[in-house]
Amino acid sequence: MATEKQREAARKNIKKAQAKWKSMSSHAHSRSQPEGRQRMKPGTTGQGNYYHVEVRPKDEFTTFRTQDVGGEGHLQRIAGKRSSGSWATSTWLISKDDAHLEDNKLVADTKDAKDLLQKLGSTPVHLSGDRFQAKDRRNVPERAKPTSAQTRARHENIKKAQATRRKKS
Question: Is the predicted pLDDT of residue 69 greater than 90, yes or no?
Answer without folding.
Answer: no
